[in-house]
Amino acid sequence: MQPISIVGPGAADLAGPLADRLDGRVAVVDCGGEDERVRRSVDSEATDGGAAVGRDDPDDRGEPEATADTTLALDSDGSWTGRGRVDGLDDLLDGLAPDHDYLVAVGESRLRVPTVLLGPDAEPSDVPGSVVAVADARGGIDLDRLVADLADAEPWITREALVRRVEASADADRAGAVATFTGRVRARDAPDDDRTTHLAFETYEGVAAERMDAIAAELAERDRVFEIRMHHRTGVIEAGEDIVFVVVLAGHRREAFRTVEDGIDRLKDEVPIFKKETTEAEEFWVHRRE
Question: What is the value of pTM for the model shown?
Answer without folding.
Answer: 0.83
